[in-house]
Design a protein that fits this description.
By secondary structure, this protein is mostly helical. The chain has one domain (about 1-50, about 65-85). It has helices at about 1-50, 65-85. The radius of gyration is 37 Å and the shape is elongated. The protein starts with a helix and ends in a 5-residue tail after the last helix.
Amino acid sequence: MQQARDAAAEKAREHTGVIMENKKKAVAAAAAVIEYIAAEEDALRVQSVAGAMPAPVAGAAGPVKLWGISGRQAQMQMRNMMQMRAFK
């Protein structure tokens, strides 16, 4: 009988150890999440202060090549006419 009680007590101690280990892990995870949220809030604060600066303006696009556009348009028009069998 005493041996059964000792075994049950040992099992309870092991279980308590596991629970304590899990609690330590949970506390560490919660602390990490809180630290991450605080870091994100700090980053947003810095961005809002830096937000007063104007955003960089995108560069102008290259020059429009009218001859290239005209040539492609003529080719498409010719293809369309051939598909409609305008030429016989």
